[in-house]
Design a protein that fits this description.
62 residues; elongated; 3 helices; mainly alpha
Length: 62
C-alpha cells in the first residue's frame, strides 16, 4: 500500500503552523498580533488576508 503525504494547503493560512505564520509575518511586514486580528476579521484565506493587511497599512499611512 502506497501512502502519500498530504499536500499543504497553499490558499489558506494555518495559525497553528508556526513556520507558515512566521513566513507570512516576514513577507507581509506585519506583526503576529496584526495577523491574528486580520484572521479573526476576514478568515484564513491568503488572498483575503493580504487585501485586509494592505488596507490596514494604507489606513495607518494616512
Amino acid at each position: 500500500m502506497h501512502v502519500t503525504k498530504p499536500t499543504p494547503d497553499r490558499l489558506h493560512l494555518d495559525l497553528n503552523d508556526e513556520l507558515a505564520v512566521r513566513a507570512f509575518v516576514k513577507n507581509c511586514n506585519v506583526t503576529a498580533e496584526d495577523l491574528t486580528k486580520a484572521v479573526q476579521k476576514v478568515g484564513n484565506s491568503l488572498a483575503a488576508l493580504r487585501k485586509e493587511l494592505s488596507r490596514s497599512a494604507e489606513r495607518a499611512a494616512s
